[in-house]
Structure formats: structure tokens, C-alpha cells
């Protein structure tokens, strides 16, 4: 059992990295790699991250439940965004639900807004990005985009609030993963929005996905400690 657990611990990150690399290659270089690879490896990468979250030992079940729910909502969004135009609004809603799940997860560990400066920081970042893109966003999409950006900023802020509220505590490691996951998510979504509304951005898929999947991996890590060898 110990050897099997150790092999999984080593192979799962490598499998995830390989799958993500193939997805990024397919989606950013469709003339060189079959586009169909993206339809396989994009959802597969997120599924592998979900597996990582499920195999971790959760000391806080409510935190783990909401984090895993957020990853599943993200998988739905990933599939929707394989069709960038028709799937944009369904994808936006799916990721909005994912961020709400993440906010609820972090709120199980610390009160919403317990540390205020991250809300100010990410609020300013969100306002600047939204302000620069506002004239490019179609009127019909402006309300859902505003709601989404607000949820994204709150999610990242609450992740940092959790981290800063438990510095030197037993949950600091988990909270740090969540904080960096939230930060990477903000960067990834900013690049996606710039490419969609004000772009195009060169190698947009590379910039978006190379920050998106590390963000989700961080969320999976924040579930808790890795399962102990021989726990089963």
C-alpha cells in the first residue's frame, strides 16, 4: 500500500503536467497539433486535478466539500469554453458557481472580510481591469461580467484573508495554497478577458491555461494534507 500511494503521489503531478502541456499545445498551435487533442486533454487535466483533491485527507470536511464542488463546476466551465462563442455564457456561469463554492469554502475557516486589505487590493485590480475593458464588452454581457468579476475578486480576497488570519497556525500551509490559487485565477481570467474583449493576445491559450491549471492545483492542495501512506 505504501509503495502504491508513493507512486500515485509522484505520477499524478507528472500526468497532470503532461495533459496540460498537450492541451495548451493543441489549443495554441492548432495548425501543428490536431485540435481534437484539446477536447480530450483540457477536461482530462481538470479531472486529474479533481482526483488530486479527492485523494487528499480532509481534516475540515466542509472546506473540502466546497473546494471539490468548485473544481467540478470548473470542469463544466472548461468543457463549455471549448466552444469559445456559444459556450462563453455557460462557461461564465459555471466558473461563477465555482468561485462561489471557493468563497464558501474559505468562509468555513475565517469570517468573510476578516482581513480587509486583500479586499481593497483585489477590488482595485478588478476595477482597473474592468474599466479598461468596459467599452469592449457587449451591453448584453456587461451585467454577468460585472457579477463574475466581483465574485472573482471576493474569492481571491477571502483566500488571502484566510491565509493572513492563520499565519503560524496549523492551517497556514493550506491557506497559502488557496491564496496563491486565487491570485493565479485573477491573472488567468484577466488574460482571458483581455483576449476575448480587447485582444487578440499572442499565445493567449498559453497565458490563460498556464496560469489557470496551477491555480486549480493550488485549490486542490488547499483541501488538506496528502493521504497518509497505509491509511487504507
Feature tags:
232 residues; mainly alpha
Task: Summarize the model shown.
The protein has helices spanning 2-28, 36-55, 61-80, 88-107, 117-133, 142-165, 172-198, 204-221, and strands spanning 56-57, 225-226.
What does this protein structure show overall?
With 232 residues, this protein is mainly alpha-helical. It has helices at 2-28, 36-55, 61-80, 88-107, 117-133, 142-165, 172-198, 204-221, and strands at residues 56-57, 225-226. It contains eight helices and two strands, in the order ααβααααααβ. The protein is globular.
Helical content class: over 70%
Oligomeric state, counting identical vs distinct chains = single chain
Mean pLDDT: 91
DSSP strand content = under 5%
Secondary-structure content class: mainly alpha
Question: What sort of overall outline do the alpha carbons produce when their principal axes are compared?
Answer: globular
- How many beta-strand segments? 2
Question: What's the order of the H and E elements?
Answer: HHEHHHHHHE
Give the N-to-C terminal Cα separation: 8 Å
Largest sheet: 2 strands, antiparallel
